Amino acid sequence: QVQLQESGPGLVRPSQTLSLTCTVSGASITTDYYYWNWIRQPPGKGLEWLGAIAYSGSASVSPSLQSRASISRDTSKNQFSLQLTSVTPEDTAVYYCARVPPGWGYNSYDYWGQGTQVTVSS
User: Fold this and answer.
1) Residue 95 near residue 118, CB atoms below 8 Å
2) Which of 1, 42, 69, 107 minimizes the number of CB atoms within 10 Å of its CB?
3) CA distances from 109 to 27, 52, 78, 84, 89 (A)
């Protein structure tokens, strides 16, 4: 059974950097053609795709985040991570990691983490 588990701080101060990690079990993040994603849901709003890292290690982030976001991975730990710099209260959300399997379209996920609440506040 594939499992994804987000971890990171629940509270981040404005202007600081948010770092989240997704630990994957039951599957390898290097297996061909799978994509590993970060998604968030602000309070009262819909889901927002933040970015993804491919099986190859190639990463992409949403243009809406411009230069604030980066995604990386640690294959030895079977983890991938999100860093979001210069956070503001608008970054307050539940953050999820999720997997897109081969041949599935954009925003089509087969496994999700349970989500982690991140609040940006002084």
Assistant:
1) yes
2) 1
3) 14, 12, 18, 22, 27
Residue with the two structure tokens 């991140």? 118
Contact 53, 61 (CB under 8 A): no
Indicate the length of the chain as a whole number.
122
Residue 37 has pLDDT above 90, yes or no: yes
Burial class (CB in 10 A: 0-12, 13-18, 19+), 116: buried
Per-residue pLDDT of 91-113, as tens digits, reads 999 999 999 998 888 789 999 99
What single DSSP character describes residue 35? E
